[in-house]
Amino acid sequence: IYDSRTITQHLNRLSKNALFPRNPDRRLEAEVLEALADGICDCALSMVYERRTRPEAMVYQPWLDRQWGKITTALDLVNANPPKLPKKITAGHMALRATLGYLALRFSGQWEKGRSRLVRWAARFDEKFPELKASVPG
Asked: Domain of 110: which CATH number?
């Protein structure tokens, strides 16, 4: 199985639909958060590939700047209103935590600046769901 959304839908089926709330508004929140996290990861991964696959002289800085701009815009949005951590975790929460872990792995010290609420959210997530910590990149 591949692709984040396919994986979360598969896990949702295995968990008897526990990863997406039944309430339509809450389900939409989980889906939007998952999509936002996936978009951040897409941008971050494209930056990693740009640097990894091109000779240094061929790396296109405007592309990197554009991707980083998308990442910071999305992070600022979530930092302004971090999602609540309910008793029952959603796929959106898992996607966001995995995304922050990936950013910490590849862009440590960069994404965290000015986003203390999001950094605290990640720490609280790890405290509340310690069984998932091993699944978080980093």
From this structure: 1.20.1050.10
